[in-house]
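To the wet lab folks,

You asked to see what we're planning to order before we commit. Fair enough. Below is the target structure as tokens, and below that is the sequence we designed to fit it. If anything looks off to you, flag it before the synthesis order goes out.
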């Protein structure tokens, strides 16, 4: 019974996943005290979830330790660890945008992003042990790890993965998979929120393409886990599928750039997972009516999905902490309406400040513990089937 863990994106909102994983590790330790390894042999991540997924996968032999390390990083988070917040850095980015909008047509220049993500590249290299991924695969405590990104150059949605054994790389309309040795650049590409962080250049088939956030055009976020043979998938989101609205209710004035931006980001990070779960449930109902002799040949199988998502509105939490952002960032957000109550949702994706991330960590813990009985049932059934197979 192969279990998969799927971690969705959401910028700073992904701190929620750290708390959820910490609680999951506690439940797993109580349920299977003699087995410290992760119960999830397949781990898939997108955007900021790709970073969390890689961290957890690199500690697949000790799930609790991996979750604790992730909580430690998110608990001490500051925005300047993810993007430049100093005056020269912010002013340089702003100047590039201004130049592109005024004379860019003549100079053929395009702004690379609202913020410089160089600090995030340093953070990934300092905190993640990429060499341990191969070790976990060799020890067979991990079957596969994948991260997903979108090629701005070709429009292809690519899943980059490492696996313990050859897996037939799939190809569907506008999405495919490649087996690679994962690097910090793959994570940077997957987490490059459009317009906010610069696209990342990756080599592909002997040439280079520019990649951005894997949540863009991700119509089937659970697809990689299913291709890796998962029968059960636990999804941890970074936001709720409910529409996010201005805190003060509907506003009559013309929407700010931040208001528009929050709806764009919601369509990137929220819409696809609910639709994909509905598709899986539809297939499950069809599989129930297939004769058992036909099911293996059909290419369809029953896949159980358990989704864990924030029980509280993230934009409400963010509104209490927007002022924690550095003055330079607040100034830049103020220009697009991100400092007003209606822009709190947009700002939440950039709110890499420990007061906000700490609150999300605690929310993630509570939401997982609220589903403790269901999670325990999953773990026990999976262990029982593994024992029967052995």
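Sequence we intend to order:
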């Amino acid at each position: 019974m192969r279990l998969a863990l799927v971690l969705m994106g959401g910028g700073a909102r992904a701190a929620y996943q750290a708390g959820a994983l910490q609680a999951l590790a506690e439940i797993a330790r109580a349920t299977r005290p003699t087995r410290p390894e992760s119960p999830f042999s397949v781990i898939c991540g997108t955007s900021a979830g790709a970073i969390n997924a890689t961290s957890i996968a690199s500690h697949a032999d000790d799930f609790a330790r991996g979750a604790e390390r992730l909580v430690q990083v998110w608990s001490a988070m500051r925005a300047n660890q993810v993007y430049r917040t100093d005056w020269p850095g912010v002013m340089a980015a702003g100047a590039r945008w201004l130049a592109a909008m005024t004379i860019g047509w003549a100079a053929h220049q395009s702004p690379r992003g609202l913020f410089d993500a160089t600090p995030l590249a340093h953070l990934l290299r300092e905190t993640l042990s990429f060499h341990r991924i191969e070790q976990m695969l060799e020890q067979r405590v991990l079957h596969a790890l994948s991260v997903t990104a979108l090629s701005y150059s070709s429009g292809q949605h690519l899943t980059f993965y490492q696996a313990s054994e050859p897996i037939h790389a799939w190809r569907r309309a506008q999405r495919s998979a490649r087996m690679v040795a994962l690097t910090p650049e793959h994570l940077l590409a997957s987490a490059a929120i459009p317009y906010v962080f610069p696209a990342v250049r990756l080599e592909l088939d002997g040439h280079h393409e520019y990649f951005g956030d894997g949540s863009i055009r991700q119509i089937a976020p659970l697809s990689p886990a299913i291709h890796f043979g998962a029968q059960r998938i636990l999804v941890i989101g970074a936001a709720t599928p409910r529409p996010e609205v201005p805190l003060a209710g509907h506003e009559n004035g013309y929407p700010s750039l931040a208001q528009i931006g929050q709806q764009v980001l919601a369509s990137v990070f929220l819409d696809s997972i609910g639709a994909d779960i509905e598709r899986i449930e539809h297939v499950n109902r069809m599989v129930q009516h297939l004769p058992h002799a036909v099911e293996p040949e059909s290419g369809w199988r029953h896949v159980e999905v358990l989704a864990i998502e924030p029980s509280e509105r993230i934009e409400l939490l963010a509104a209490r902490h927007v002022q924690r952002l550095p003055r330079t960032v607040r100034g830049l957000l103020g220009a697009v309406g991100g400092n007003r109550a209606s822009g709190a949702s947009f700002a939440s994706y950039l709110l890499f400040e420990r007061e906000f991330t700490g609150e999300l960590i605690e929310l993630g813990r509570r939401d997982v513990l609220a589903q403790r009985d269901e999670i325990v049932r999953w773990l026990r059934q999976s262990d029982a089937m593994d024992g029967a197979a052995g």
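Structural context that might help your review: The chain has 17 helices and ten strands. Strands lie at 3-7, 42-46, 144-151, 157-163, 171-172, 175-179, 200-204, 207-213, 232-236, 304-308.

Thanks,
Computational group
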